[in-house]
Every structure is written in structure tokens, then in C-alpha cells.
Design brief:
With 384 residues, the protein is an alpha/beta fold. The chain contains 14 helices and eight strands. Among the domains are: 110 residues, Orthogonal Bundle (Arc Repressor Mutant, subunit A), CATH 1.10.10; 134 residues, Trna Endonuclease, Chain: A, domain 1 (3-Layer(aba) Sandwich), CATH 3.40.1350.10. Helix content is 62%, strand content 11%. α5 crosses α10.
């Protein structure tokens, strides 16, 4: 236990330390008091200045600053309005380019998501084959019309089935059951096969079997849908009939003085649409095509000319192709074989000719186009 002397000693030491600390910090305390007094004086002066300042001057200064700020805003707006046309066009192109890029990306993503079956792909392929060029389609439909020789849907159906059987080869003598099971009449089917062989559309090998020739592999695409083929054949027949009637009623547009001898005039190689004679008594074989003539017509007209030449004891007939549209290469080919052409449309009646039309009975007709033109020129010069 602490004695009274010990406690008194502790209190004395504590008091002594407190006095020592006070004297050490007295100067610092005075410095702080001095600074506080200085701040108080400054605050008082600033307050007095605010109270005594000219309020009008402050208002004017504020107004000036605000006006300057407004002018800066107007200047910025004006600079935006003064964008050059080049900059505006560049911005527009950037927007269009971005839109196109996003459209392409969307299309690519859509295509990536699309999947088709093998059957769907085959159907699309066949559709592309059918579409082809317009000239090819017309020529192929004409050949099919000649081969199938009907637009009756029942007959077309079994004929189309028979053509499809030729893809893998068909031996009619040993596959009669298969032919009958497909709904193909046996006798008529064999007759069609013979016809295809004669036209070299189908080929035979050592065994009595038939295959489609490579050149006519498109037959399978065109005969896949009998209804589609029926529509094309009927359309071709109707339009050709209408065009033939139009030409028959406007024969003077082809050439003045022509006299019709026969329509569908039979020759060993086929039927001439219009067989006529000109004002000098020369035979004229007129072949009609609609809507576009194809290169195969040249061979057809050459056969007609030879057949009629033989029938007329060596007299060469004129051959004239009449069609709404005749390609330039075909015109040149006709001229090389001394044949004539006329482009005549039912719509506007406009006539283009590969032969000068006869305008006087004294003009002698030549089967050569260049000769006819020379004669016309000579006749004109003589009359002058």
C-alpha cells in the first residue's frame, strides 16, 4: 500500500510537468491566436466590401459574361450548319455502307441457318435446267411436241414415265412387267421407243435395250412433271396456230403477189407450213416459227428444198423463214444458204426482211438474197 509521501511525490511531479509543457507551447498558442485575428480582420474587410460594392457593376459584369457564352453557342451551331456538301455526302455514304454491311451479314447468317434435303436440291436443280435460255426452251419444247405428238395428259403421263425409264436403260422384251406396272401400254410404248431411236434420241446396244443419248439427257427434266409439259405444249400449239392464221391473212406483208397452193404441204422430210408461188411462178416454201426461231430450222429448210427440188424435176424452190424474232447469227446462216427471212410480229405488225420485197411484176425473183438486192438496184437505176 502506497504511503502518503509517495502520493504527494507523484502529484508534485505531475504539476511540474504540466507547467513545463505550458511554457513550451505558450508561443505557439500566441501565434495561432494572432493568425485567427488576421483571418477575422480579412473576413470583416471582405464583408464590408461586398456591402459597399456597386451592385450595378456586378450586374453588368454578369450580363457581359452571359452574352459571351450565348455568342459561343451560336457560333458552334453555325459551324454545324456550314458542313460542306462533301462532308454531308461522306456521312451519307458511311451510313449506306454500314446498312449494306449489316444487310449482307444478316443474309449470310440466314443462309447459314438454311438446310435442304437431297430431294429438294434435286428439284431445284431440275428447275434450273428447265429454265435455261429462252431459245433453248423453245427449241426443246418444239422437239418434244414432234416426238410425243399429243397434249393429252393421260398419254403424256405414260410417255414421260417411259422416257424416265430410259435413264437407267430399258430392255422392253425382258422388262414387259415393269413397263406394264408403270401404266405404259406395251404396243404404244415400243412404237415410241422406235421413234426415239430413229431420231437418235434413244440409242440401242447389242442387247435390245434403249438408253437416252447424252445429247438429250434434258428429256428427263422436261418430262418430270407431265402437267407442266402439257401446259407448254398446248401453249406452243395454240400460239403457233394463231400466228399461222395471222400470216395467212396477211400474206401480202411477206411479199406481194404470193398465192397459197397448200397449207401443211407434205414432203418426205416433213410438212411445209405454207407452200405458195410468187408472181413469176416459182415455188416458195414458207416455214413459220413462234416466238423465236432456232438454228435447227436451217436443216429443216434445207431438207424441204431438196425434197421439193426432186419433186419439181430439178427446179429449186425459194425458202423463207417467218418469225417474230430471228437471232442475228441465224439470219447470217440463212443467207449463207441462199435462204430468206422475215421478222413479222402480231403485236405491232412491224416487218423486217432479209430480202427486198417485190414491188413490181417485172422483177425477177432469185433465191439468193444478194442477187435479189442487186436486181432491185439495177431496176431502179434503169428506170432513171
Amino acid at each position: 500500500m502506497l504511503s502518503v509521501e509517495s502520493i504527494a511525490l507523484v502529484l508534485f511531479v505531475t504539476f511540474a510537468l504540466g507547467v513545463a509543457i505550458y511554457f513550451l507551447l505558450a508561443d505557439r498558442i500566441k501565434t495561432v491566436q494572432s493568425r485567427l485575428e488576421t483571418v477575422s480582420t480579412s473576413v470583416k474587410q471582405w464583408t464590408d466590401w461586398l456591402r459597399t460594392s456597386d451592385t450595378a457593376n456586378l450586374r453588368q459584369e454578369f450580363s457581359t459574361q452571359f452574352q459571351k457564352f450565348g455568342e459561343d453557342i451560336v457560333t458552334q451551331i453555325g459551324s454545324l450548319k456550314r458542313l460542306s456538301s462533301e462532308e454531308t455526302e461522306k456521312i451519307r455514304q458511311d451510313i449506306v455502307r454500314l446498312a449494306e454491311q449489316r444487310s449482307i451479314e444478316a443474309a449470310v447468317n440466314h443462309i447459314k441457318e438454311i438446310t435442304i434435303t437431297k430431294e429438294e436440291f434435286e428439284r431445284l436443280r431440275q428447275m434450273v435446267v428447265k429454265l435455261g435460255g429462252k431459245e433453248d426452251e423453245v427449241e426443246r419444247i418444239e422437239l418434244l411436241a414432234k416426238v410425243l405428238d399429243t397434249s393429252d395428259i393421260k398419254a403424256l403421263t405414260w410417255q414421260c414415265k417411259l422416257i424416265h425409264l430410259l435413264e437407267g436403260g430399258l430392255a422392253p422384251e425382258t422388262e414387259e412387267d415393269s413397263i406394264l406396272a408403270s401404266g405404259i401400254p406395251l404396243g404404244a410404248g415400243k412404237k415410241l421407243l422406235k421413234s426415239l431411236e430413229e431420231l437418235q434420241i434413244a440409242i440401242t446396244k447389242k442387247v435390245q435395250a434403249y438408253w437416252l443419248a447424252d445429247k438429250y439427257s434434258w428429256f428427263t427434266a422436261y418430262t418430270r412433271e407431265p402437267e407442266w409439259l402439257k401446259e407448254r405444249l398446248e401453249s406452243l400449239i395454240a400460239k403457233e396456230f394463231e400466228y399461222q392464221k395471222f400470216i395467212r391473212n396477211n400474206l401480202d406483208r411477206i411479199e406481194q403477189g404470193l398465192v397459197v397452193i397448200s397449207e401443211q404441204y407434205e414432203l418426205p422430210s416433213g410438212k411445209v407450213d405454207i407452200f405458195s408461188r410468187d408472181i413469176k411462178g416459182q415455188d416458195v416454201c414458207i416455214e413459220l416459227k413462234y416466238p423465236v426461231a432456232t438454228s435447227s430450222v436451217v436443216g429443216q429448210l434445207l431438207k424441204y428444198r431438196e425434197d421439193q427440188k426432186a419433186r419439181a424435176s430439178g427446179t429449186v424452190p425459194r425458202c423463207v423463214l417467218v418469225c417474230p424474232t430471228i437471232p442475228e447469227k441465224l439470219r447470217e446462216n440463212l443467207q449463207r444458204h441462199s435462204m430468206e427471212w422475215r421478222e413479222l410480229s402480231m403485236d405491232d405488225g412491224a416487218l423486217r426482211s432479209g430480202h427486198e420485197p417485190i414491188i413490181a411484176p417485172t422483177l425477177l425473183i432469185s433465191s439468193g438474197i444478194s442477187n435479189a438486192r442487186n436486181l432491185v438496184s439495177a431496176t431502179s437505176s434503169g428506170s432513171e
